[in-house]
Design a protein that fits this description.
The complex is a heterodimer. By secondary structure, chain A is mainly alpha-helical. Chain A contains 20 helices and 3 strands. In chain A, α1 runs antiparallel to α2, α3 runs antiparallel to α4 and α4 runs antiparallel to α5. Helix content of chain B is about 75%, strand content about 5%. Chain B is mainly alpha-helical. In chain B, α12 runs antiparallel to α13 and α17 runs parallel beside α21. Classes of the chains: A mainly alpha, B mainly alpha.
């Protein structure tokens, strides 16, 4: 039990939570907003600090910043163990940045009952930081639930069209997914015979006493479908476009950007390394569902959308297909690609939801057929949206490119057929992405738009909207130009946890 | 500064220029153009210093490493890259200067020059890249800059559509290109160009997949449809990107990977190029927009280059390896002819496009050649330089196009007589449509007010024309090129003896037939003489041009979009509707009891949430 006064991981969870509690206990509005800035900014600063200190720092069992806290649950094998390895570090940084952007955007949005809205977002933020900082499987799950429940409330109360139905559907689906994966995790714990939920102990124990093949197969199946629902694996995805379409922007940013990655993170960090035999049984069905369902079918459905937010929601489901394909490869390259894609997709989808809401503020509609020629009035907003779209369709220079490229390379080794089908997605996403840009921003102004904007001409992006957008865009470009910033820690961790590549590549 | 550092500066200067413009100079158009032209000057200067100083080097720096995949940012600066970089640098510089005058009154000045700088960055990246992944990255980036610049006047629906079309069609080609690179990586364990040239696995699929990239970027059949539409962009952009450099990147890429070629793949490449050359020349005859004629002419000339590459004879050199599939090394000599024509074409086609830009600028944005005429006296400098450009492209003796086209015709004559016949016929058409264009634009009397009041542009418009005209005259003399490009120019096939006579005579004959035909057929009038004299032929040629677009439009609107709508319908009805709502109904029954707790007050919900959390914790901790 090493306790130091300054633990960046614990602080990044505790600060937003403390601010949330303070707001809940009736802080006046002015102070609530001021403290909320602290609550959102602290994790981001701490995460950036952790990111720069990760390389070269001391490591313990493959984890940096490892600390244990007794929470009174050690009788059940549960301790609050915090630490970061190469897989969780990128996601920890992602959660902090998207959280900051979503928080800043929420503060400027002037939502009704802003205090409670910010409080829920802060709880969500704390949960997200906790998910990726936890080494203990129990707390990994616990923090996920902590972040998930505010989502339901936010969709139900602050949501847009169809919010009641969307909140209901979201709750049912995600609770079901979470319960399935909980059963899987408990089964893993029980069947392993280990006496701790700590991932390090569990890993060492399972390395010495591997599970039987049938057990692995069954547990992996539970985890795959449980986590799969949470990440919108086809055909269990229908909650996603509807939910995101209805969710208020900051909640959509945090959920689509970060919380959704919980499932994939669970597969990469827990299921694949601990259940290698289970993967073998499921990799082909998983890849088939992902490539035909998520990439091709959902890709085409995305093309048919008229509602901008729904389109972004569907495109997010499609990109998760690539992530599942990377999981199915079961190689260090594939898993690494998934982590890169998760980070990149998280940043870009959050940026797209943010900008979509900003478009809505100016046009009062999400229907792309009613908007047109907006770039003439709002060139900066247009430039941001073009950049976000190009990032999400995998243009080099943005982080997403590295995720997609590495997954395609890994996938070809797994199966050239699946790789060929998956690369078709590159064309599909270019079609719907550029079509949306052209419909909303280019061409002459539409009749409908002129009617809306004649009384109230749309102003370009304000600084309060620009700053959160810039945070996300800068991160996308930074990783795009310097992928090593993530791949170096990632590579070290994956090399230890995954089978060696079949063919060492020359430069 | 070492050569490597100089090359890195060449690559990064335009990126820095684009970044500075995007961040700080959005509203300062004049300063933005100065920064961009400065970057272009730096590229041109550095390119010539590196090429002529005979610096040849390779350098690489690891960029990305993951799970066994190692990817480097590297520079391979051999004679091929030196030639291409010089062409890009010089032509790029001319066009930057021309843009200063041409785009002076454009309100979005800064965005335009920022786009040009991004383009130069990406293009230099393609030229310098030492491995296929890096090539692909910059390949995508030139596609992006092309998208930006075609859509420069985005408030026009046609420009917006054209930009989108260009990007998507290129992505279709890149689909194959990317798969080819990935396959190459797994079969050879490397994508480094130098490593591949000494050791690689024999495969037909890899070169053909890689060729898909060239089909998209160099607008070969059947992906040629984006290039004519791309003329929606400002004319200097058409000159730089859609004539001289970017579209030629496909040919450059083929020359880069020529060691991977196999005879069967080359046959496919040869026929694709030949078909494109002929098809585009036929389309060019009926065009009335000055830029569209030049666009189809570009397609046709690109077809010549691709055909030249495919025509090159292959030589097998067996190493001592026991496995014949691995030890085989393949040399392909179409590279010389293709790159030679690429260089001369870059000069005269940039000249022609800038000349057309000068005409359009002088005629207040009139682009219809049937509304021009009489510009010979109004715009004498443009007229004379344009005339040199026309003479060069139709192969007038001792101008640039004469030498490079003869090299291709000879290659065809020596290797495949059918291709030779088709290319010779295409050369007649080239001469026909170019002389038609020239005659209708410059001769006769003005046929519109705009043409009557045309005027020559300023110094920035005319100086690039003169420089490019000089290059179009001298560009064909390989002996004039510094010795430093020997690695490429030594590969140019040269006809000797009777073959030489045949080629020269054919070349002169096709040029004369086309030119005389155009002079006889076309009167400087407001209507197309061919349409009047032979409506059937004119209609057939128009239909030929429109057939591809019709098929693609039908596919996109009637097949793809309807299929997407159908899937969406099924999704809404079955997945979201019946199944999920059915399940939700069951869950709703269970929820009836809990409904009493839902009083609708948010604060109550929040307290329930906190209370539940505490309870859960207490249970788990064993306190209860």
């Amino acid at each position: 039990m090493i306790h130091s006064l300054y633990d960046p991981l614990l602080l990044s969870i505790a600060v937003p939570l403390a601010v949330a509690v303070a707001i809940a206990f009736g802080l006046p509005k002015r102070w609530s907003v001021r403290l909320a800035y602290v609550g959102f900014a602290a994790p981001a600063l701490l995460a950036l600090c952790v990111w720069t200190r990760y390389a070269g720092g001391p490591q313990d069992h493959g984890y940096a910043f490892l600390t244990h806290y007794n929470t009174g649950l050690s009788g059940l094998g549960i301790t609050l163990t915090l630490g970061l390895n190469g897989i969780s570090l990128p996601l920890f940084v992602l959660a902090s940045l998207v959280g900051l952007a979503a928080g800043l955007y929420a503060i400027q949005s002037g939502a009704e009952r802003l205090k409670i809205y910010l409080m829920l977002l802060l709880v969500m933020q704390a949960g997200l930081m906790g998910v990726f900082a936890s080494v203990d499987i129990f707390f990994f799950y616990f923090f996920h639930e902590l972040a998930l429940i505010p989502t339901f409330i936010m969709v139900g109360v602050w949501g847009g069209r169809d919010r009641t139905y969307a909140a209901m559907k979201l709750t049912i689906y995600l609770t079901l997914g979470a319960m399935l994966s909980l059963v899987g995790l408990i089964a893993l714990y029980v069947k392993s015979g280990a006496t701790s939920f700590d991932l390090i102990t569990l890993r060492d124990y399972l390395a010495a006493h591997p599970l039987g093949e049938t057990v692995q197969k069954n547990i992996f199946g539970l985890l795959m479908f449980g986590f799969g629902i949470l990440v919108s694996l086809w055909p269990l995805h229908t909650w996603a476009p509807l939910g995101y379409g209805a969710a208020p922007s900051s909640a959509a940013m945090l959920h689509a950007g970060v919380l959704k990655k919980f499932g994939l993170y669970g597969l990469i960090q827990i299921a694949l390394p601990l259940l290698p035999a289970g993967v073998g049984h499921w990799s082909h069905p998983l890849a088939l569902l992902a490539v035909v369902g998520n990439v091709l079918v959902i890709g085409l459905i995305t093309m048919a959308q008229r509602d901008l937010k729904q389109m972004i929601g569907y495109s997010s489901v499609m990109h998760m297909g690539y992530a599942f394909l990377g999981v199915a490869c079961f190689s260090a390259l594939g898993a690494g690609g998934v982590v890169l894609l998760m980070v990149a997709h998280g940043l870009s989808v959050a940026l797209l939801f943010l900008l979509a809401t900003s478009i809505h503020h100016r046009t009062h509609t999400f229907d792309m057929d009613e908007i047109g020629g907006l770039a003439q009035k709002t060139p900066v907003l247009a430039a941001f949206f073009v950049a976000a779209t190009l990032a999400s369709i995998g243009l080099p220079g943005f982080a997403n490119f590295w995720g997609e490229l590495t997954i395609f390379i890994a996938l070809w080794h797994f199966s050239p057929l699946y790789a060929t089908l998956a690369v078709i997605g590159v064309v599909i996403s270019a079609i719907y992405g550029l079509r949306a840009v052209a419909r909303v921003f280019f061409g002459p102004s539409t009749e409908a738009l002129s009617q809306v904007t004649v009384a109230n001409p749309p102003a370009d992006l304000r600084w309060s909207e620009k700053i959160p957008a810039l945070i996300l865009l800068a991160a996308l470009l930074f990783i795009g130009f310097w992928p090593k910033s993530l791949s170096t820690p990632l590579n070290a961790t994956l090399a230890a946890a995954y089978p060696a590549p079949a063919q060492a590549a020359a430069k | 500064m070492t050569p490597v550092q100089l090359a890195i500066v060449t690559l990064l200067a335009p990126l820095a220029s684009a970044a500075v413009i995007a961040l700080f100079l959005r509203r300062a158009g004049g300063l933005a153009s100065a920064v961009s032209v400065l970057a272009a000057t730096l590229i041109a200067g550095a390119a010539l210093m590196l090429a002529l100083g005979n610096f040849r080097f390779e350098a690489a720096h690891e960029w990305f490493q993951l799970g066994g995949l190692s990817l480097s940012l590297g520079i391979k600066f051999d004679d091929l890259a030196a030639l291409m970089l010089s062409v890009v640098g010089v032509v790029g510089w001319c066009i930057h200067v021309f843009s200063l005058g041409y785009m002076r009154d454009d309100p979005a000045h800064a965005r335009y020059f920022g786009g040009l700088s991004i383009f130069m960055f990406s293009m230099v990246g393609i030229v310098l890249a030492d491995n296929l992944f890096m090539l692909f990255i910059f390949w995508e980036l030139v596609g992006f800059s092309s998208y930006l610049l075609i859509g420069h006047w985005h408030e026009k629906q046609s420009a917006s559509d054209a930009a989108k079309k260009a990007f998507i069609v290129n992505r279709v080609g890149d689909f194959g290109f990317l798969l080819g690179i990935v396959m190459c990586y797994w079969s050879n364990g490397t994508v480094n160009l130098t490593a591949l040239s000494s050791h690689h696995v024999f495969s037909m699929l890899i070169p053909l997949l890689l060729f898909c990239g060239a089909v998209g970027k160099s607008a070969q059949l059947p992906l040629q449809i984006w290039l004519p539409d791309a003329m929606e962009g400002p004319t200097p952009v058409s000159a730089l990107i859609h004539a001289a450099t970017m579209v030629a990147a496909g040919i450059y890429m083929l020359c880069r990977i020529n060691v991977l070629m196999v005879p069967d793949a080359l046959t496919v490449i040869m026929w694709t190029g030949t078909a494109t050359a002929l098809y585009a020349a036929l389309c060019a005859i009926t065009q009335s927009d000055i830029k569209k004629v030049l666009a189809y002419s570009t397609l046709s000339q690109l077809g010549f280059m691709v055909a030249a590459f495919g025509l090159g004879p292959t030589q097998f050199i067996y190493d001592n390896f026991s496995d014949p599939k691995i030890g085989m090394l393949l040399m392909q000599t179409g590279v010389g002819a293709a790159m030679f024509h690429l260089s001369t074409h870059a000069f005269f086609k940039a000249l022609l496009f800038l000349g057309s830009g000068s005409v359009i600028h002088g005629c207040h944005h009139e682009q219809d050649i049937f509304k021009m005429g009489g510009l010979r006296t109004k715009m004498p400098l443009t007229f004379w330089t344009f005339t040199i450009g026309v003479a060069a492209i139709i192969g007038f003796p001792y101008l640039a196009g004469f030498f490079s086209k003869d090299a291709i015709l000879y290659l065809a004559y020596a290797n495949n007589r059918t291709v030779f016949a088709v290319l010779a016929f295409t050369a007649i058409l080239t001469s026909l449509y170019m002389v038609r264009l020239w005659k209708l634009t410059f001769l006769g009397a003005p046929r519109s007010d705009h043409a009557a009041h045309a005027h020559e542009g300023g110094f920035t418009l005319t100086a690039p024309l003169v420089i490019l005209a000089v290059l179009s005259v001298l560009g064909g003399y390989t002996s004039l090129y510094p010795k430093v490009f020997t690695g490429v120019f030594s590969l140019i096939p040269e006809a000797e003896g009777s073959a030489h006579t045949v080629i020269v005579l054919t070349s002169l004959a096709v040029m004369l037939i086309g030119a005389v035909g155009a002079f006889a057929l076309y009167r400087p009038a407001a209507t197309d003489s061919l349409a009047q004299k032979s409506p059937g032929l004119f209609g057939a040629l128009t239909a030929l041009k429109e057939s591809f677009d019709a098929v693609y439009d039908y596919y996109v609107a009637k097949v793809q979009q309807r299929f997407a709508m159908l899937l969406n319908f099924l999704e809404q009805i079955f997945l979201s509707g019946l199944i999920v709502r059915g399940l939700a109904g069951v869950a709703g029954l269970f929820g009836l009891g809990a409904r009493a707790l839902h009083v609708g007050n948010l604060n109550v919900y929040v307290y329930w949430f906190l209370g539940g959390l505490t309870l859960f914790w207490a249970c788990a901790a064993g306190l209860l």
